[in-house]
From TrEMBL:
It comes from the Archaea. It comes from Nitrosopumilus oxyclinae. CDD domains: LMWP_ArsC. GO terms for biological process: response to arsenic-containing substance. PANTHER family: ARSENATE REDUCTASE. This is Low molecular weight phosphatase family protein. Keywords: Arsenical resistance. Residues 3-130 form the Phosphotyrosine protein phosphatase I domain. SUPFAM superfamilies: Phosphotyrosine protein phosphatases I (SSF52788). InterPro entries: Ptyr_pPase, Ptyr_pPase_sf.
Length: 135
């Protein structure tokens, strides 16, 4: 049975969605991957959809999801994309969580969001390599 990998941020409209999409692209057959937010937005940030589309990843059908305790309890690895506020993300301080501390793409320029996308891609590839080493 594949392990669950969970990416978390506040709105689940940018960083965690990009990480989920990259993980799906590079390792979906080895793990179940999802993303969620502590206060989900109503839709993905359009600029995030645009920069992912530029590299051939279509996220138009993705929707932000609400983080639940069971998602965290059932995950093999949980990655905090940059929610450092214990008030809005109390569940992320309960368990062994990987912290990437990546800037929120909200209200950033197109070039800045591309840099965030590329950083997330390299972090996801590194995480996948690390997980394979522990197989």
């Amino acid at each position: 049975m594949p392990e669950n990998i969970l990416f978390v941020c506040v709105e689940n409209a940018g960083r965690s969605q990009m990480a989920e999409a990259f993980f799906r692209k590079f390792a979906s057959n080895q793990f179940n991957v999802s993303s969620a937010g502590t206060t989900p937005s109503s839709q993905l940030h359009p600029i995030v959809v645009q920069v992912m589309n530029e590299i051939g990843i279509d996220m138009t059908n993705q929707q932000p999801k609400l983080l639940s305790d069971s998602m965290i309890e059932n995950s093999f690895k949980t990655v905090n994309m940059g929610c450092m506020d214990k008030e809005s993300c109390p569940s992320l301080f309960v368990k062994d969580v990987i912290d990437w501390d990546i800037s929120d793409p909200k209200e950033k320029s197109l070039d800045d969001v591309r840099k965030i996308r590329d950083k997330i891609k390299s972090e996801v590839i590194h995480l996948i390599e690390t997980l394979k080493e522990h197989d």
